[in-house]
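Teaching assistant's notes for section 4

Start the section by putting this record on the projector. Ask students to predict, before seeing the second block, whether non-specific serine/threonine protein kinase will look compact or extended. Collect guesses on the board.
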Amino acid sequence: MESRMIDGRYVPLQQLGRGGYGSVFLVQDSLTNRRVALKFLMDASADAVTRFQREARLLGEAANNRYVVELLGCNLKHTPPYLVLEYCEYGSLRSWVGAQRPWQDVAAALTHALNGLHGIHAAGGFHRDLKPDNLLVTRHPEQPTRVLIKIGDLGLARTPGPETQPMTRNAAGTEGYIAPEIKAGAPFQASADIYSLGIVAAELLTGERSTQKLGQTKLPEQMRAMVRSMLSANPRERPSAQQLAQTLTNLLQDPHVIAETEEQSSGIGGVLITSLLAGGALLALAALAGGDEAQWDERVQRFRGPDGKFKSE
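Reveal the predicted structure now:
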């Protein structure tokens, strides 16, 4: 990408990554003096353009879910077209793989992923490409000593609609994270996202995309069984997001578990991951676990304040 200012506003700083059909750059927004991420569509095929437009729409619809990366703007008529996304300065959970983080850290991160995934599923949609690379870590906007885990890259996500029916039978995704029934040609269901998140959980806990090492990993038996159930070959046996949330709520609200977490957890760029266990995350998780859609939305929905930023109620 050229070093010149983009649309008279965005100053390129560095390339953050490159995917199958796009590139992401860190830029400085000269209007707001904020660092943001620009995702460019480099594939000009009709399918890629449709996916890019769909991603912009889905991100816009997820604006009230703080656990999904925020869409700040877009220019679909630019050459190449781009999306303006919030910049998650601590990278992705990929950096956790093989790092042998305490199970409490992984459980806490999963609570945020579940909140984001619940919002997508509640709208009747699916992510279809959950993996550590698409779970991003950023500083909490109101509390600098806390971090948030956010779901990113909705390029393969789908919502109900006539045009998506053939696509939901496509085994698109990343090899190693795709549910077996999707590979066999079954239509995509929420349980397939649960399977992918189960692979992520196993990988974060053991460093491998399987349950083989779960038996030798120090973690509560309840969590071990939970991860294995997420990876059940039978999609009907996989727990729902609400059931998973309840399991994690019970584990993380145990005062002995909290005390152990505060002792063992390490930091991310000076921001403690133990802060994921703070009251706000647990309140949102408890509402999700209750299975009441309206209550969950009220607890995690964001509103813009006078400064234009989202703030929690």
